[in-house]
Amino acid sequence: MVLLLGLVLAVLGIALLAQGGARRALGGPLLLLGLALAVLSQSFVVVPAGHVGVVFNVFGGVQPVPLGEGIRVVIPGIQSVVLYDARLKEVTLAKGPAPSGTSTPGEDAITARSKEGLEIGVDITVQYRIKRDEAPQLHRNLGPGYLETLIVPQIRSKVRDAVGLFNAAELISTQRTQLEAAVTKELREDLGSQHIELVSVLLRRIDIPPSVAKVIEEKQTAEQQVQVEINRRQQAEIAAQRLVVQAKGERDAAILRAEGEAQAIRLRGEALRQSPQVVQLTVAEKLAPNIQTIMIPSEGNFLLDLRSLQPVQTQPGR
Fold first, then answer.
1. pLDDT by residue (tens digit) across 94-137?
2. Nearest one of 9, 3, 5 to 30, comparing CA atoms
3. What share of the chain in percent tops pLDDT 90?
């Protein structure tokens, strides 16, 4: 706006100088004022939010310290400012157009070869931003076109190198995370050395030939069935072992009971041998009540009169 005003005043001054009379006297001041405003307008640079300014001096080259956000003063004709967006950005390399919301158009998907030589298609999104303090070095080494000259070629190269470390079956089943980690590690090192901070790597799609995918799926299904059979066999073995343990426990319990009963019989026999009268009394108690006398073998061979063991009954009338 200031530049436009200065140019208008300068043109008006020149027009007045071309005329004669009193108006010519106003032409000189208007011309000088217009030129001054035009020069002054070139002395101020506005660095927008999220951006950083790199100053180029015709006498000293790229200045090592970048300009932060806000209004900055430069020397017109000697210093110029190039603005760089330092906010988070992303690039998507995918088959067809990029998804909605991405800041860059989609490009062709990356084609790589797996460990066994199969062709693998990979769609990937990389999030990055420039390092603010290193913007002057970035401007000196790469310039504003760093996305096309550095980031995209590096992404393609690192993805191809990482895919070659894995088999196709691993990439679509168990090793997807490891592939992403390998690409992230290599990209972070290389982009970091070029003054760009890698934020994240997102694998959106890993595509293998349909025929290969079918073979891999059938193989995985067969492996799962084998694993199911192994689990069933293990469960059967565990059940059989449980029955064996149970039978052994029952056998041991029976043995212990038998040993206990034998021990009890032995102790009872010893007690009876030591007290023969107990034998006699026990036998007598077991005999029928109508048996009055019985002979019991013992060391002293005698007859036992059972009537003497019974209480004397009182005759009626006595």
1. 876 555 555 454 457 788 888 888 888 899 999 999 999 999 99
2. 9
3. 31
250 membership: H or E segment, kind and range: helix 210-274
Tokens 């970048």 appear where?
66
- Give the separation between CA 216 and CA 222, rounded to whole angstroms: 10
Dump pLDDT digits (tens) for 15-36.
655 666 566 666 566 556 655 5
pTM for the model stands at 0.58
CB-based burial label for 52 (10 Å; 0-12, 13-18, 19+): buried
Of 123, 97, 92, 125, the closest CA to residue 110 belongs to 123
Nearest CA to 283 out of 262, 297, 264, 269 is that of: 297
Closest CA to 103 of 115, 114, 89: 89
- Rounded to whole angstroms, the Cα distance separating 157 from 152 reads 9
Neighbouring residues of 203: CB distance < 8 A, sequence distance ≥ 6: 122, 123, 124, 176, 179, 180, 183
259-270 b/e (C-beta count within 10 Å ≥ 16 → b): eeeeeeeeeeee
Instruction: Go through 79-99 and write b for each residue having 16 or more CB atoms within 10 A of its CB, e for each that does not.
Output: bbbbbbebeebbbbbbbeebe
Q: Strand, helix or coil at 201?
A: strand
The string of DSSP letters for 11-48 reads: HHHHHHHHS-TTHHHHHHHHHHHHHHHHHHHTTEEEE-
Helix, strand, or coil (residue 3): helix
- DSSP-derived secondary structure letter, 67: B
Mean residue pLDDT across the chain: 77
Distance CA 121, CA 110 (A): 6
